[in-house]
């Protein structure tokens, strides 16, 4: 069972007469709008921490690294591809409805900071040694899985979603172990002590923040092959889990037409860009009507 503080279930107050609507929005479930949390999964300890928060920034950077070699008499250098890195900048605010949630928020942030440190092991003391060996060795690096709804998650080749209806079923959920693998390069925490909303004073020189702001940089470690093979991308659902279908010149889709209520994203074989089959057909019908009226 998940820990009461770091687990995925949120109860903002012990007061039964108080109900925080954001709890239902964040707690896992099958209803629309449920399970919208940020989660971290620490691989060495198999520990998870979840945040019910306002996302203030989510920026992805795909940076390609090229080796350049200048050649005498040539205007441009020769480029040799090396790798493409995916990095995330994530910022979010964690609000507290009362003292109980303020304390839990602090405990969750505390757990996140602990995920930044490696796993150590103490060597066995040799037989006959006068004292135990105090040195420790690193046995595991602090690898983490980060999940931000469907935007950042572990890519699964079994995903076959072709429209928004089954996309939410396959890419939804708040299971922290399904997050994208990577390393947290830095975490900045603002306890908002100078915020206009103030803090919650407990006495004895102890305060709790009403809002905690977190800003972190995360570098993704890809767990699958990425690249083009025989004009097909090796992992077609990378990076967001959406599977696109190819459209021929007539606009039909290779994997079947979409549902009436849901349009299917398609790629034009002739390089015409992104097509929405339903909208294209609708536009064609409207154009035909206008031409007939003109006759």
Tell me what you see in this structure:
This protein is α+β, with helices and mostly antiparallel strands and 295 residues long. The chain has two domains: 192 residues, Elongation Factor Tu (Ef-tu), domain 3 (Beta Barrel), CATH 2.40.30; 52 residues, no CATH class. Helix content is 16%, strand content 33%. The strands form five sheets. It has a seven-stranded antiparallel sheet with strand order 2-1-7-8-11-4-3, covered by helices on one side. A three-stranded mixed sheet has the order 14-15-16. A two-stranded antiparallel ribbon has the order 5-6. The longest helix has 18 residues.
Concise synopsis of the structure shown:
With 295 residues, the protein is an alpha+beta fold. The chain has 2 domains: 21-122 and 135-224, Elongation Factor Tu (Ef-tu), domain 3; 244-295, no CATH class.
Describe the protein's topology.
Elements: H1 21-26, E1 38-42, E2 47-51, E3 54-69, E4 78-95, H2 99-114, E5 119-121, E6 137-140, E7 144-148, H3 164-171, E8 180-190, E9 199-201, E10 207-209, E11 211-220, E12 228-229, E13 232-233, E14 245-247, E15 265-268, E16 274-276, H4 277-294
Parallel strand pairs: 14-15
Antiparallel strand pairs: 1-2, 1-7, 3-4, 4-11, 5-6, 7-8, 8-11, 9-10, 12-13, 15-16
């Amino acid at each position: 069972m998940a820990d009461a503080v770091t687990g995925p279930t949120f109860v903002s107050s012990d007061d039964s007469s108080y109900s925080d609507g954001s709890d239902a929005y964040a707690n896992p479930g099958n209803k629309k709008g449920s399970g919208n949390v940020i989660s971290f999964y620490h691989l060495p300890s198999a520990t998870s921490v979840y945040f019910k928060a306002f996302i203030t920034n989510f920026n992805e950077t795909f940076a390609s690294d090229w080796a350049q070699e200048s050649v005498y008499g040539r205007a441009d250098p020769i480029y040799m591809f090396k790798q493409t890195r995916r990095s995330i900048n994530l910022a979010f605010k964690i609000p507290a409805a009362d003292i109980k949630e303020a304390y839990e928020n602090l405990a969750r942030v505390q757990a996140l900071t602990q995920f930044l440190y490696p796993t150590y092991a103490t060597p066995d003391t040799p037989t006959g040694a006068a004292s135990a060996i105090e040195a420790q060795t690193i046995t595991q690096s602090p690898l983490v899985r980060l999940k931000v709804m469907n935007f950042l998650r572990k890519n699964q080749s079994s995903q076959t979603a072709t429209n928004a209806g089954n996309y939410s079923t396959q890419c939804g959920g708040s299971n922290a172990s399904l997050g994208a693998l990577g390393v947290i390069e830095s975490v900045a925490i603002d306890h908002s002590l100078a915020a206009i909303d103030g803090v919650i004073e407990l006495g004895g020189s102890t305060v709790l923040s009403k809002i905690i702001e977190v800003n972190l940089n995360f570098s993704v470690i890809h767990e699958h092959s990425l690249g083009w093979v025989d004009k097909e991308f090796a992992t077609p659902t990378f990076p967001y889990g959406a599977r696109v279908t190819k459209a021929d010149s007539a606009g039909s889709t290779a994997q079947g037409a979409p549902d009436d209520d849901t349009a299917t994203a398609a790629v034009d074989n002739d390089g015409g860009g992104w097509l929405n089959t339903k909208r294209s057909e609708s536009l064609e019908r409207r154009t035909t009507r206008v031409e007939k009226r003109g006759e």
